[in-house]
Amino acid sequence: MRPEINVVGAAIVKEGRVLAFRRSYGIDSVIHKYEFVGGKVQTGETEPEALKRECREELEAEVAVGDKLATVVHDYPEYTVNLSIYLCRLVSDFVMLEHEAYSWLDCRTLQEDGWAPADADVLDALRKGVVKFRPAETDEDLDEVYALASKVMHATFDSISAAGEVNYMLSTSLTRDAIHANERDKGYRYEIIELNGEQAGFFAYCPGESFEPEYKGTTYLSKLYLLPFATGRGIARKVFNALPRPLILDVKKDNYTAIAVYEHCGFRKTAIYKKDIGGGYGKDGFVMELK
User: Fold this and answer.
1) Is the dihedral of CA 62, 65, 69, 70 positive or negative?
2) Is 141's pLDDT higher than 90?
3) How many angstroms separate the CA atoms of 168 and 159, rounded?
4) What is the CA radius of gyration of the chain?
């Protein structure tokens, strides 16, 4: 009977790419092939403890261990591996101590060729993308919401907005105080979006009457912002499916990309929307509804 080995591996993800290493030694099935950093679980260790220790020993790095991505049982000729892969985030720089090379590989285009067989079995989960929503509750969460919004809003709206409008919107609607006021006075909720264990965007929603009294009985999606690496992964549809319907939103008339995405997901334009938002700026666009 083959010996069985309990092993953990770290799927370290950053900006939509996963950190893969090539090992310069080992059995023929794994040598010079990509793998996730990790190793054997020692007696008395939990899997996250073993993973943190292995990252220190092999990379001199500290990692934050997140959710378990997958568990794989693979039979090599020499032994059977029980492999648990966790989504992880680097919290320090790293130095290779036991590998010959490393690469940051786009999660969307991962291919099994060139990977150690056991590790290759979990690549499909990264390709599909593990999406998770969590409430923005702490001050650190709210600061992250502001940072995410700043990145996406400047990239999306600077070219179709008046000078200074994006900064005005950030300062009046997405600071800690503004978010707390929206939660208290209008029933807003803010959710951070995670993709493969890293923050990828956020959305905010509230009862429709907080948008306009005539939309009582609906849910108003106030904001849905995704970082570039998270677009095209079906996340917007997951957000829409998570919220009570009818679902309404407003979109700038010149934001053609967003309008196309919303229409592809079933939204339809129901009204032209214009409103003074203060600071000499105004909203000029469409209300769209998903029934």
Assistant:
1) positive
2) yes
3) 15
4) 23
Task: Give 121's strand partners.
Answer: none
CA distance 20 to 198: 17
pLDDT digits (tens, 9 = 90+) for 81-115: 999 999 999 999 999 998 999 999 999 999 999 99
Contact 271, 289 (CB under 8 A): no
Q: What is the pLDDT of residues 31-60, one digit of tens each?
A: 889 999 999 999 999 999 999 999 999 999
Here the tokens at position 203 are 């959305």
Q: Which phi and psi angles does 130 have, rounded to 5°?
A: -90, 115
Query: Which pLDDT does position 78 carry in this prediction?
Result: 86
Distance between CA atoms of 229 and 279, rounded to whole angstroms?
33
Q: Are 63 and 88 in contact (CB under 8 A)?
A: yes
Tokens for 85, please give them.
Answer: 């892969």
Spatial distance between the Cα atoms of 59 and 181, rounded to a whole number of angstroms: 44
Question: In the structure, what pLDDT confidence band is assigned to residue 275 with cuts at 50, 70 and 90?
Answer: confident
